[in-house]
Amino acid sequence: MSIMNSFINDIFEKLAAEAAKVARYNKKPTITSREIQTSVRLVLPGELTKHAVSKGTKAAPSSPPPR
Fold this sequence. Notes:
Pfam families: Histone. The chain is an all-alpha fold. It contains 3 helices and no strands.
């Protein structure tokens, strides 16, 4: 279980670092879902990217919750 936890943490760190680079490149002060999606496309290989983007898009709300 420890190996799987380390693997997931490593992937999240790579995605966060890449998203920060994308945001910095575009001169944006915050990391949005767009930067995360771009970092997923840059970090993950082929078919895994398609599944990750598809599942992430379904999981993330398209608009903020009502107040």
